[in-house]
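Late entry, evening session. Most of the bench is empty. Finally got around to the prediction I had been postponing all week. Sequence below, unchanged from the version circulated by S.P.
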Amino acid sequence: MGTLYRELAPLDLPGDLNVSIQESFMVFPSKETERKTMFLSNIDKVLDFDVETVHFFPSHKDFPPHVVADKLENALADALVHYDFFAGRLKVNSETGRLEVDCNAAGAVHKNKDFLKPGDHPLCVVQLTSFKCGGFAIGLSTSHTTFDGFSFKTFLDNLAALAAKKPLVVSPCHDRKLLAARSPPRVSFAHHELLKADSLPPGFDSGVFQASSEQLDFKIFQLTSDDLKALKEKAKPAEGHHSAARVTGFNIVTAHVWRCKALSGEDDDPNRPSTVLYAVDIRSR
């Protein structure tokens, strides 16, 4: 991570904004951390990509850019003690062949990584951008192997608490072995939701999707409350048919999108396989 002051030139067009990098540097844990490796589950292994977010804050007289920079640097250094893996690096275990995190306290870094050694890929990158109006933005790039959405939110809550010199909001749990497969693997009940191996369509090999190289259109469809109500009416069981399934907004929109995609194929085979996958939070389970 590195603090960055970005001052915008007094221009009228956003496309002509002048951005300059003032400083880039590493941030290390504020206390010595244990050298260890962190197990990654099979779910983590197939989600090896970076997630970038940006967070905007209005101007405040008590928080000029240099104060924000110092607070952010110190809070991140303290956070890297509790999230020691965040200052580590991904590596492949030579004995097991599994991807894991080497908690080596190598540090987090700023978005400008030109000063890093070749092949050094930090798991946490932070960028602080200040504006002439006094407001600022914090951009973060984190490896999905370290956080999902909910745990990333918890990290931000804890980072804010540390910046305010307060205790952690939530004590994080980093034990990924809770999601490890049993050894040897045992399937104790049927998984009807999974396709049979002989019916997998192209792109499902090993369970990892490959991005298409074709040019695609990007469109946003706005669904009103009336649209959702109409879809829920269509999804209701027929008269006299009882179903325990909940007709939620998420379910009906997902089913609607899935149906549209399935009907948009180039061939006319109505029996061709079509699947939809989406992420769920399994903490309560």
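Two things to note before I forget:
DSSP finds five helices and seven strands in the chain.
Residues 1-13, 203-208 have pLDDT under 50 and may be disordered.
Will write this up properly tomorrow.
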